[in-house]
Amino acid sequence: MHFQNSYMSELMERVIKRNPAEPEFHQAVWEVLQSLAPVVTAHPKYINEGILESLVEPERIIKFRVPWEDDNGKVQINRGFRVQFSSAIGPYKGGLRFHPSVYEGIIKFLAFEQIFKNSLTGLPIGGGKGGSDFDPKGKSDNEVRRFCQSFMSELFKYIGPDTDVPAGDIGVGGREIGYMFGQYKRLSNEFTGVLTGKGLTYGGSLVRTEATGYGLCYFTDNMLKDVGKGFDGATVAISGSGNVAIYACEKATQLGGKVVTLSDSNGFIYDKNGVDLSCVKQLKEVERKRIREYLVSHPHAEYYEGCSGVWQIPCDIALPCATQNEIDEASAKALVKNGCFAVAEGSNMSSTPQAVEVFQTAGVLYAPGKAANAGGVATSALEMSQNSMRYFWSFEEVDCKLRTIMTDLYRNVSGAAAEYGVPGDFVTGANVAGFLKVADSMLAYGLV
Ligand code: NDP
Questions:
Q1: Minimum CA distance residue for ligand 1 atom 29
Q2: What's the pLDDT tens digit per position in 158-181?
Q3: I need a labelling partner for 11 at 20 to 30 A (CA). Which of 17, 74, 279, 324 fits?
């Protein structure tokens, strides 16, 4: 984690010291500080007014015990978190992740990324993230319900439609949002848009389910068009088989691409004829089964244990949609060697810094998650707007707004990269463009 700029070096050292044993958070901060060096050189006010120091310190961290009872009547204890990182440009906004790997450092990294992502959408939303080390996999509906109700019994004290509006992430989909929204409504005696990703019968927005995956493809399509390419006729490798992966697969296919892979945390499928998405939706969204079951109805497809092998499959476009750091240096080299010309991240911080360097050195178009996957939170903000208005927009209206947001976002990111002398460097573009709006708001408030 080396810097040319001594102020940035010292700040990074302080972040590491104050947040020990949180490598994902260090990685996320490092990447942003790296990109901001030219901005603070040109505008020393951001250093002089202490904006960067404030920005790397969360406004508030809430950490709590979540007791619940399993189906055998045994008491189980999990940990809950909500990191309210920045409310500079709007109420905290960001998903909840339920996964056994969750600890404070993961939530902090995600909340930090969310600040810039939310700023890039052009909508008035601040950065936050939360979750628990609870693993919904293998739990009955009743166990998930009891856990969600207990989780919300504590979290409801700290959130609100104008304060903090959580949503879904890994392990949190429509079922979990329903249980949590029901509990919030009961405890607060209010029907307000305090969570997004709600069901359509109780305040959800059309397109929210599809938004992250669709938005990822809209961003990628803009990026490809700028160099005279597109999805049409391209072979696409996608990882994951959850919410983001499924709808990225759907949109990439609609735009003329052939998606040949999907994965879960056990392994991946390779279907050279193109993935049959209706089968995957049935397996994952309805039956909650493993991706290997795809071969039962599609025996010509191949299944391999382990996740990283998915990046060894030759493709033109790679859309990682599973989890952080899922593409390491070796996987990035394999993608480049096999002719991949574009990588756009559906998952947050999908690629290690070494992998990003491989892509950028090889001239691969590379879009970081905080830009490419912003369609989910943007549509969540549209859900908030509809809730405030007590109104619903049609699928076409929301989809059209999402497409416009992702096109504007792409132009904003690519414009910022060009302005700071690194055209095509979407990492710098996203960090700079996301930072400026937040930093200028913080300056306007005085000491924050
Ligand atoms: P889901 O829980 O719906 O799906 C996650 C998928 O990734 C599953 O197939 C899961 O496999 C796999 N996965 C999760 N963890 C790992 C792991 N450690 N190693 C390998 N595979 C793993 O989550 P989402 O689709 O909602 O989220 C996917 C990514 O997209 C995350 O990084 C999330 O932060 C990001 N994102 C999500 C948004 C949203 O709107 N949902 C918005 C913006 C970003 P398995 O079932 O075996 O666990």
A1: 347
A2: 999 999 999 999 999 999 999 999
A3: 324
Domain co-membership, 49 together with 73: no
- The Cα 249–Cα 373 span in angstroms is 14
From the CA of 99, give the closest atom in ligand 1.
Answer: 15
Q: What is the pLDDT of residues 108-154, one digit of tens each?
A: 999 999 999 999 999 999 999 999 999 999 999 999 999 999 999 99
Closest CA to 364 of 389, 331, 390: 331
Question: Which of 134, 244, 351, 409 to mutate to test ligand 1, by most ligand atoms within 8 A of the CB atom?
Answer: 244
CA of 313 from ligand 1 middle (Å) equals: 20
Query: Any idea which of 3-17, 103-117, 394-408 has the lowest mean pLDDT?
Result: 3-17
Distance 243 CA to ligand 1 centre (A): 7
DSSP structural state of residue 423: T
Q: Do the beta carbons of residue 210 and residue 173 sit within 8 Å?
A: no
* Cα distance between residue 356 and residue 349, in whole Å: 10
What CATH number did the domain enclosing 320 receive? 3.40.50.720
What distance in angstroms lies between residue 367's CA and the mean position of ligand 1's atoms?
18
Instruction: Please indicate, yes or no, if residue 127 is contained in any of the structural domains.
Output: yes
What is the 348 CA–ligand 1 centroid distance (Å)? 9
Q: Given the CA of residue 211, which atom of ligand 1 is nearest to it? A: 40
Last residue of a domain, one of 316, 337, 372: 372
Q: In what order do the strands lie in the sheet with 60-69?
A: 60-69, 75-86, 126-132, 92-98, 164-167
Residue 29 sits in the same domain as residue 64:
no
Task: Evaluate whether 130 touches 59 at the Cβ level (below 8 Å).
Answer: no
